[in-house]
Design a protein that fits this description.
The chain is of the alpha/beta class and 325 residues long. It is 54% helix and 10% strand. The chain has a five-stranded parallel β-sheet, with helices on both faces. A three-stranded antiparallel β-sheet has the order 1-3-2. β4, α10 and β5 form a beta-alpha-beta unit. The protein is elongated, with a radius of gyration of 23 Å. It starts with a strand and ends with a helix. The relative contact order is 0.08.
């Protein structure tokens, strides 16, 4: 019997992916020790290996799990022991009909799993194909909220736990950033008057969330000047003064980014009285629960979904215009 880390290592998957396949598809049902730890037997390892082989060959995780659960132990064992290079027989359905995944109709969870698997394997072509499938599933905002952010969170958790290497995480992240860069250019016109500044404070470099907000705001017709990552407070002030910015949206990815973000808020309030300042991101927790609209700094706190965040900024700008007249 194997603990979850041992089982994941033997199956060739991350712990996060093992848990996802267990929870979403029921491909394995581990026993529990007296202390409550999951333990997996050799049959479970075979199922996980077979699942990995089928997914690697282009099956959706849900279809792969269904085939494994409908197959006997001998067939699962055969799939589990298949060689990774040139597993031609694995691509045929155990039921005999054959199956190829269709990315345009695959369930959302399958697309997330497939992206993580491709990223972990450093398979650049597969990552690009996965991104094609993900961004074809709906509006930019719904895709980012429902698919892309969850996929990146899963990938980041695997990296933080040391279950995938830095190269894999960086390659996948930059593939997403390239998509977002093109989307930003296509979403609106630059050089608008009184723009909304969007960026990250000094020391913060994880910019996908901030760039996604900038794209959503442009798509909604708001003028946006995207400043990017790791921007000192003095440069926020200079940009706000040079462009007579109407608002500043500061991304706070982690709690460690919060002091630098608060410093940006402080200097902007003093240098540009009346400018709307908003904090968004997982690290921008509300400090004063009695006032859900602010966080104790005078900045508004944005809701997590992109569309809601954009509307919160639009409403803040409208309040500012009414107050000025």
């Amino acid at each position: 019997m194997y603990r979850i880390k041992q089982a994941a290592a033997r199956a060739g998957v991350s712990v996060e992916l093992l848990r996802a396949w267990e929870r979403r598809y029921g491909v394995v049902h581990p026993d529990r020790t007296a202390s409550g730890y999951r333990v997996y037997d050799d049959v479970a390892i075979d199922r996980l290996r077979a699942m990995r082989h089928l997914v690697d060959d282009g099956w959706s995780p849900s279809a792969a799990a269904t085939s494994i659960l409908e197959s006997d132990d001998d067939r699962v064992r055969e799939l589990a022991l298949a060689d990774v290079p040139g597993r031609g027989a694995v691509a045929a359905s155990p039921a005999g009909g054959g199956f190829q995944a269709d990315a345009t109709t695959a369930p959302a969870d399958d697309l997330v799993d497939r992206f993580v698997v491709s990223a972990t394997a450093l398979d650049a072509s597969a990552v690009e194909a996965d991104l094609d499938a993900i961004f074809a599933r709906g509006s930019f905002e719904s895709v980012m909220d429902g698919l892309m952010f969850p996929a990146l969170q899963l990938l980041g958790a695997a990296w933080a736990a040391g279950r995938i290497d830095v190269a894999a995480e960086h390659a996948a992240t930059h593939a997403v950033l390239r998509r977002l860069g093109s989307a930003f250019q296509a979403a609106g016109r630059p050089n608008e008057e009184a723009p909304i500044l969007v960026g990250l404070p000094a020391g913060s470099r994880h910019e996908i969330g901030a760039l996604a907000f900038a794209i959503a705001a442009r798509r909604a017709g708001l003028p946006v000047l995207y400043l990017g990552a790791d921007l000192p407070a003095s440069d926020w002030v200079e940009a706000a003064a040079t462009r007579r910015a109407a608002a500043a949206v500061v991304g706070v990815v982690t709690r460690a980014d919060r002091p630098a973000a608060d410093h940006v808020v402080d200097v902007l309030h003093h240098a540009r009285p009346g400018i709307l300042i908003a904090l968004g991101g997982a690290g921008a927790e509300i400090v004063d629960p009695a006032d859900p609209g602010t966080d104790g700094t005078g900045a508004i706190h944005l809701p997590p979904r992109l569309g809601d965040a954009v509307e919160a900024v639009r409403a803040g700008l409208e309040r500012g215009r009414r107050a000025a007249t």
